[in-house]
Amino acid sequence: MKNKKRTVKLVARYALRVTVFLLFTIHCSLFSDAYALDVKREVLESGLTLLIVERHNLPIVRVTVGVKAGSVIEPEEKAGLANLTAEL
Q1: How far apart are CA 80 and CA 77, in angstroms?
Q2: Would you say 50 and 37 are in contact if contact means Cβ atoms under 8 Å apart?
Q3: Is 43 helix (H, G, I), strand (E, B) or coil?
Q4: What is the pLDDT of residues 8-28, one digit of tens each?
Q5: Which whole-number Å values give the CA distances from 17 to 8, 23, 30, 50, in the listed order?
């Protein structure tokens, strides 16, 4: 009789764990598209590229600017100009 009760408890625990795992998996798969980003790309006349992501559920505006500039792209005859302008 004790073995039967123990077996029932083990099966119930296992079934509960499987059920919780399946519910969690289904929940995650339903909302996985909620965080997908719809990125729009625009190139301005100046050559600047904009990547725009709109998320209307947040009342926040965030701007991140990355400019391809600096000493990496300056010509040899103007060596040090990027450093000079950065120090101004």
Answers
A1: 9
A2: no
A3: strand
A4: 888 888 888 989 888 888 777
A5: 14, 10, 20, 47
**pTM for the structure as a whole:** 0.37
Residues ≥6 apart with Cβ < 8 Å to 69: 82
Q: Cα–Cα distance between 18 and 12 in angstroms, integer?
A: 10
Query: 74 burial class (0-12, 13-18, 19+ CB within 10 angstroms)?
Result: middle
Q: In which element (H, E) is residue 51 found?
A: strand 49-53
Which tokens sit at 26? 């289904």
- List the domain boundaries for the chain: 2-87
Structure tokens at 83: 């450093």
How far apart (Å, rounded) are the C-alpha atoms in residues 71 and 81? 8
* Cross-strand bridge partners of residue 49: 43
